Amino acid sequence: MRVLVADDDEQLVRALRITLSSHGYQVIAAPDGVSAVTTAAETHPDVVLLDLGMPRLDGVGVIQALRGWTNAPIIVVSGRTGSAEKIQALDAGADDYVTKPFQIDELLARVRALTRRAIPGTADPVVTFADVVVDLAATLVTRAGARVHLTPTEWRMLEYLARTPGALVTRETLLKGIWASEQITDSGYLRLYMSQLRKKLELNPSRPRHLITEPGMGYRLDLSDASSPPVVVGEE
Q1: Are residue 160 and residue 85 in the same domain, yes or no?
Q2: Are residues 171 and 190 in the same domain?
Q3: Would you say the pTM of this structure is higher than 0.90?
């Protein structure tokens, strides 16, 4: 079972790595918020231990980004004891909140409890729309039975959308998750790669039926196959 420890406290990360590894967990570490998001997208951890006060992207931002595509349990491990911080983290999508300093046995018990509740077999579904099949476990896309070759960036953009079909994935989530930098704010990157995805996956790329733009907000993947002509949604 993979555990992502996202914290900029090197000593704490080292201690958690030793302890969790001794209990059979595979530990992956991320020293800041942006790398936490990208590492999670690359490794698909079974549970996330997350500090709130991290550089580049704070813990609440990380929670919001992760909840755009994964239901993996998130346990906040933070020195912030105020009720407002706890409420904000839980409202953003965290499953539990542990205050530093903490007893390692208690943390392990909470990890076990949350992972027992996780639904097995749903982390890597197969998503289909029109004649396209997206196998998230195999990182494979086919169209009409033939393999579609995507660049790594195209795949990651499609993966974010496919993990939460029908839901809006914000531009901020995609930019931070794909390029691992909060400095990249130009959504022209997104328009470029979305255009390429549509050329490879849509029947009519200029009138997309499934890879939909929500102007000013982001994108979503529509899995429906309505026979009526789609409403044309312009790019941002």
Answers
A1: no
A2: yes
A3: no
- Tens digits of residue pLDDT in 213-231: 988 888 989 887 654 333 3
Which structural domain range is residue 61 located in?
A: 2-117
In a domain, residue 150? The reply is yes
pLDDT tens-place string over residues 194-206 = 999 999 999 999 9
Q: Do 144 and 112 share a domain, yes or no?
A: no
Would residue 236 count as lying in a domain?
no
Beta strand 146-147 pairing with 140-143: antiparallel
**Within 13 Å and on the Cβ side, how many CA atoms surround 222?**
16
Q: What is the pLDDT of residue 184?
A: 54
How many structural domains does the chain have? 2
Q: What is the pLDDT of residues 146-173, one digit of tens each?
A: 999 998 889 989 988 888 787 788 888 7
Shared domain check, 156 and 50: no
